[in-house]
Design a protein that fits this description.
Layout (H helix, E strand, L loop, with lengths): L1 H35 L5 E8 L2 H11 L5 H7 L4 E7 L2 H12 L5 E7 L12 E11 L2 E13 H16 L6 H29 L12
Parallel strand pairs: 2-5
Antiparallel strand pairs: 1-2, 3-4, 4-5
Helix pairs in contact: 5-6
């Protein structure tokens, strides 16, 4: 049991290190923009590492074989990083800058900005793989990166709180209100971006073209 516990801790530690690698890359970009440019697209960076209980619960829901190899191959959101930007074009610009780095491998892209979910949710989700260099060698680790605007982040935070309060059994009228609020947030993003371009002449980035 002690050996299994130690192996599990080492397994989870790799994901924390992978998450730290992505945070470092984004922090460097943020500091570089602050130092050398008159506009910084990154407003905030946060992160979270799934607990072992959460990983086990997800394995059970998906019917995954209880092995480290199965977890590594099928659960790609153990380590997560969220980046909040001011504008939609910033989200795509950051995704391009991050995925262009030579040691980053893009495993999956879900563009919920170009194609929002039915409830109005909008965000750019990337699953990237980064190498973590340990005493035992290089270990590729998957990290989920979510990039969204301030308005999108505010809406997602509110939705999470409502679903938690109602234990996911949200009354229909609240769901309708959330969907309407998501449309309002998207309209606000578009209006603010137009104003931003009028002031700074910043080009609008194309949507939905992050290469895998």
């Amino acid at each position: 049991m002690r050996a299994l516990r130690d192996e599990t801790e080492r397994f989870m530690l790799r994901y924390r290190f992978g998450m730290d690698e992505v945070i470092t890359k984004l922090s460097i970009l943020r500091d570089e923009f602050s130092q050398n440019h008159d506009y910084n697209p990154i407003e905030h960076i946060s992160s979270r590492l799934k607990s072992l209980d959460s990983v086990i619960a997800k394995m059970q829901r998906k019917g995954i074989e209880p092995s480290f190899d199965s977890i590594r191959e099928t659960i790609t959101d153990i380590a997560g990083v969220r980046v909040t930007c001011s504008f939609v074009s910033d989200a795509y610009r950051l995704a391009e800058l991050l995925t262009a780095q030579r040691d980053i491998r893009v495993l999956k892209v879900k563009d919920y900005i170009a194609e929002p979910k039915s409830n109005g949710y909008q965000s750019l989700h990337l699953i990237v793989e980064v190498p973590v260099f340990l005493s035992t060698g290089a270990h590729p680790v998957a990290v989920e990166v979510q990039i969204r605007t301030i308005a999108m982040d505010f809406w997602a935070s509110l939705e999470h709180k409502i679903y938690y309060k109602y234990d996911r059994q949200v009354p229909p009228e609240l769901l309708d209100g959330l969907t309407d609020a998501a449309r309002t947030a998207a309209e606000l993003d578009a209006r603010m971006e137009r104003l931003h371009r009028e002031v700074h002449g910043a080009p609008a980035h194309a949507r939905g073209h992050i290469a895998i």
